[in-house]
C-alpha cells in the first residue's frame, strides 16, 4: 500500500510492521522515560512487562568552547525501535531534500557542504537555536502531509516520533523529519539568495557565501523566524577572505578542496612525532603530569596504561575522520602510529613492569 493510501490505524500498523494494539499505545500514552544516570534494568524490565514503551535519556557534552550538554533519548522497547527504523526507511525514499542540504543525506557530509564555499570573499555562518527541540508535533504533522500522508496518519506518526511535543535527539527518525520540516525554509532561503549568494545547510548550521554581493543577514533572520525558528546569535559569524574561514569545521581557503585546519594537523603531527620518538609510556606520563597528576603518587603508574589506551583511541579516531577529508595526511600518520604499535607494545608493557618495580622499591626505602 502506498503511503498516500494509508487511512486507518490498522493500515499504519501494517506499514510499520507492528501490532495495532502496540501502535495505539504508542499514540495515546506517554512513553516510560528514565534517566540513564539512575538507570535500573530491572525497573525497565518490569515496566516492559506491564506493556509500557520505555525510553531512556542521557546528557552528552557538546563540542566546542561553549560547553554545555545535549539531551539524547534512546528507545529501549524493541518494537518501537524497529517500527521507527522502518518508517525512516520509507521517509528517505519518499522525501528528497534540495541539493543545498548536506546533513543527514546519503552521499553528503561536512566535506560536500564546505566544498560549495571555497575561496569566497565573505562567508556568513548562522546557527538555529535548539533545532530539534523547536520542531513541534504540529510541524511534523504538517511536514508529513506535504509528502502526501493523510492528515490523521500524519498526526499519528507525529505523536510516536516526538516526546513532550518536540522532536528529540536520538530517535532515528528525527534527522529525516527535521529535514522534511525545514524543506520550505530551505526553498525560501535558496530563492532569497538567487544566483549571487551560495546557501547550504548542514542540520542546524546554515552557511551563506558570496564574491560579489552583500549577504542580507536581516532578511535571512526574518525568513528563519517566519518558519518558527530562531537564531543563536552568539554563533552568528561573518568571515572575510584573508581571515580564518570555516564551514562545518573545515577551512575553505584552498580552491580545490576543503581542508582540516593547520592547527589541528600540527597538533596531531607533534603528538604522533613525540610518541614515535619517545614511546607511548613517556607521552602518557607527560600528559598525566600536565593534568596535575602526582608522578610520585601511589596510583600514578597504574594510570599510565589507561592513558595510553585513551591516547591511541583518540589519535586513531582523528585519523579516521581526517581520512575522509585529507587521505594523504591520514595515510602518512596512520603508518607512523602503526609502526609505533608494532614496535612498542611489548616494550611499553615491560617498561610499566620496571616502573612499578622502581616505585615499589622507592616506597620501601
Automatic annotation (TrEMBL):
<feature type="domain" description="Reverse transcriptase">
    <location>
        <begin position="1"/>
        <end position="252"/>
    </location>
</feature>
<dbReference type="InterPro" id="IPR000477">
    <property type="entry name" value="RT_dom"/>
</dbReference>
<dbReference type="InterPro" id="IPR051083">
    <property type="entry name" value="GrpII_Intron_Splice-Mob/Def"/>
</dbReference>
<comment type="similarity">
    <text>Belongs to the bacterial reverse transcriptase family.</text>
</comment>
<keyword id="KW-0479">Metal-binding</keyword>
<dbReference type="GO" id="GO:0003964">
    <property type="term" value="F:RNA-directed DNA polymerase activity"/>
</dbReference>
<keyword id="KW-0548">Nucleotidyltransferase</keyword>
<dbReference type="Pfam" id="PF00078">
    <property type="entry name" value="RVT_1"/>
</dbReference>
<keyword id="KW-0695">RNA-directed DNA polymerase</keyword>
<keyword id="KW-0460">Magnesium</keyword>
<dbReference type="GO" id="GO:0046872">
    <property type="term" value="F:metal ion binding"/>
</dbReference>
<dbReference type="InterPro" id="IPR043128">
    <property type="entry name" value="Rev_trsase/Diguanyl_cyclase"/>
</dbReference>
<dbReference type="GO" id="GO:0051607">
    <property type="term" value="P:defense response to virus"/>
</dbReference>
<keyword id="KW-0808">Transferase</keyword>
<protein>
    <recommendedName>
        <fullName>RNA-directed DNA polymerase</fullName>
        <ecNumber>2.7.7.49</ecNumber>
    </recommendedName>
</protein>
<dbReference type="InterPro" id="IPR000123">
    <property type="entry name" value="Reverse_transcriptase_msDNA"/>
</dbReference>
<dbReference type="GO" id="GO:0003723">
    <property type="term" value="F:RNA binding"/>
</dbReference>
<keyword id="KW-0051">Antiviral defense</keyword>
<dbReference type="InterPro" id="IPR043502">
    <property type="entry name" value="DNA/RNA_pol_sf"/>
</dbReference>
Amino acid at each position: 500500500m502506498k503511503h498516500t493510501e494509508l487511512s486507518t490505524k490498522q493500515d499504519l500498523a501494517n506499514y510499520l510492521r507492528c501490532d495495532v494494539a502496540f501502535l495505539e499505545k504508542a499514540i495515546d500514552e506517554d512513553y516510560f522515560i528514565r534517566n540513564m544516570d539512575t538507570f535500573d534494568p530491572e525497573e525497565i524490565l518490569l515496566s516492559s512487562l506491564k506493556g509500557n514503551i520505555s525510553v531512556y535519556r542521557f546528557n552528552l557534552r557538546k563540542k566546542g568552547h561553549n560547553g554545555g550538554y545535549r539531551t539524547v533519548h534512546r528507545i529501549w522497547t524493541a518494537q518501537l525501535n524497529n517500527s521507527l527504523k522502518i518508517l525512516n526507511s520509507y521517509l528517505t525514499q519518499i522525501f528528497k531534500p534540495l541539493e543545498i542540504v548536506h546533513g543527514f543525506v546519503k552521499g553528503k557530509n561536512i566535506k560536500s557542504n564546505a566544498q560549495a564555499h571555497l575561496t569566497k570573499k565573505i562567508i556568513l555562518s548562522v546557527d538555529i537555536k535548539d533545532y530539534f527541540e523547536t520542531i513541534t508535533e504540529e510541524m511534523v504533522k504538517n511536514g508529513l502531509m506535504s509528502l502526501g500522508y493523510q492528515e490523521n496518519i500524519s498526526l499519528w506518526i507525529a505523536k510516536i516520533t516526538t516526546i513532550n511535543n518536540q522532536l528529540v535527539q536520538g530517535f532515528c527518525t528525527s534527522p529525516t523529519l527535521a529535514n522534511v520540516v525545514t524543506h520550505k525554509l530551505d526553498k525560501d532561503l535558496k530563492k532569497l539568495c538567487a544566483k549571487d549568494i551560495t546557501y547550504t545547510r548542514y542540520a542546524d548550521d546554515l552557511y551563506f557565501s558570496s564574491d560579489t554581493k552583500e549577504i542580507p543577514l536581516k532578511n535571512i533572520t526574518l525568513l528563519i523566524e517566519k518558519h518558527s525558528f530562531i537564531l543563536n546569535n552568539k554563533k552568528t559569524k561573518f568571515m572575510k577572505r584573508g581571515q580564518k574561514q570555516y564551514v562545518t569545521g573545515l577551512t575553505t581557503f584552498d580552491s580545490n578542496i576543503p581542508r582540516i585546519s593547520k592547527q589541528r594537523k600540527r597538533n596531531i603531527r607533534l603528538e604522533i612525532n613525540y610518541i614515535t620518538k619517545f614511546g607511548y609510556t613517556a607521552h602518557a606520563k607527560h600528559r598525566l603530569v600536565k593534568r596535575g597528576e602526582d608522578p610520585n603518587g601511589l596510583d600514578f603508574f597504574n594510570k599510565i596504561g589507561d592513558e595510553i589506551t585513551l591516547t591511541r583511541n583518540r589519535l586513531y579516531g582523528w585519523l579516521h575522520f581526517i581520512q575522509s577529508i585529507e587521505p594523504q595526511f591520514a595515510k602518512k600518520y596512520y603508518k607512523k602510529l602503526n609502526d609505533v604499535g608494532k614496535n612498542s607494545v611489548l616494550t611499553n608493557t615491560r617498561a610499566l613492569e620496571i616502573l612499578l618495580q622502581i616505585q615499589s622499591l622507592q616506597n620501601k626505602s
